[in-house]
Every structure is written in C-alpha cells, then in structure tokens.
Amino acid sequence: MTPILICNWKMNLTNPDIESLIVAAEAATRGQEKDVELVVCPAFTALHKTHGLLKLNHIRLGAQNMFWEDKGSFTGEVSPLMLTEVGCEYVILGHSERRGHCAETDEMVNRKVLKAIEHGLIPIVCVGETREQRESGQKEVVVMEQVKKALAGVQNFDRIMIAYEPVWVIGTGQAVSPKDAESVMQLINVTLLELFTGDVVRSKITLLYGGSVDASNIGGFLSEKDIHGVLVGGASMQAEKLQGMIRECVRLSS
Ligand code: PGA
To answer: Could you tell me the distance, in angstroms and rounded to a whole number, from the CA of residue 72 to the centre of ligand 1?
Structure first.
C-alpha cells in the first residue's frame, strides 16, 4: 500500500512559510511520487496560492473544515464549492479542536461528511476520546459512536478516510503506542462493517492515526496492519521533520 501523510497546518503558516515547506516536500519526494500520498491542508486563505505551487507535482490539497451548505447566508463559512474551485480534493472534518473550541457536534460533522461526498471531496473524519473518557473506560464507546454518527446515511462514495486521534495526545509530543492505535483501528473496522459491506470497507475506507506523530515514530504506526496513514500537525510544519516523515513513508511503501 502507498502510505498516506496528511499535513494539518491548523491556524499556522503564511504563504512564504508554505512555499518553503512545499519546496522541502518536493525535494524529499522527487522520483518517489508513487510511494507516498502527500496531502497538505493550509488555512483557507492560503489554499489558492498553495494550489498554484502544487500544480506541477503530485502533492494534493486539502482544507481543514467546510460548511454543510453550498451557499447562502452563513457569514464566515466556506462552502464545498469554494473548496473544489481552488483545487481541494480532501477536507478534514470534525477535528477535535473544532469539536472543542467551536462546539461542533456529531450531527454537524455528519452533515459536512454528506455534503463533502456530494461534491466529490474526500472527507478525513476525525474521531477520538479525551483523557477523561479514556480514564473512565469510555474510549471504545466514544470512538464507535463518533464513527457511526459521522457516517450516518452515507451511501455512495469513492473514498472516506477516518483519522483516529486520541485528543489527549495531540500536540503533546507523546503519541500512544502503535499497538494501542491498532487496537482502536480494529474496533473502527468492526464498526464500519455494521454500516458497509466488507468489500466497501476494504476498498474505499482508509484509516489514519494522528496525535504527536513525527519522523521518529511514524514507522511504527505505518507498520501496523490497519493503519494506512497518518494525520500530522506540529511535525509537518518543520521542513526537516516533514522530509523525515516522507522518507519513512517511501521506505515502508510496498
Ligand atoms: P499533532 O496534531 O501532530 O501536532 O499532535 C495532530 C492533529 O491535530 O491532527
């Protein structure tokens, strides 16, 4: 499989920083384009310019969020039409920072997922438990519920990504172990099999791990059977670390 590396740049980086990161990413991928699926997700304001930088190569573009309607009186929101217009192919939905800071609910995430699919965008749906939920033994229930609610009513789609991100390790430098993440992936697979056929789950849904991934631990995650890729914040904003992660993806590509 080709490992997937999604870079979530959050509310960071202006155009000059992005340009140098893209140059670094290109240098690390040159000649190995088929061995890594690399997606960069800058802020909305940088999408257009970033797409221009990516035109001649294989690095893909994603957004960090979108609204669930095509257009209308939704001040401050961005529609899927606007994302596809600037060349986005992917969109991160339901990130824990949006659930936490912007009160995004499972129902809102679900509406966004359905809308993204309608417009041919690949949703990267984030799920994961908080520290309190894990410590009180609710990890499994929380993740299963989030997956089920996010995908309610989903029928025809080309591709969906589910990113398991334990909320309490994001941005801490302390990832969970690959085995811990793999056990949650198996649980997600069981949940997905309640919603779709085995064939659909195998061929159309990819599972990612996110939360303090960097060049030193990415290999462990990608070596797990059910982890097809990673969603990375902090380490994806530093050229050397980004290059290190790309090299690991290439090394593990089969
Ligand atoms: P992190 O962020 O890699 O900095 O932990 C991951 C994420 O929030 O998607």
So the answer is: 32
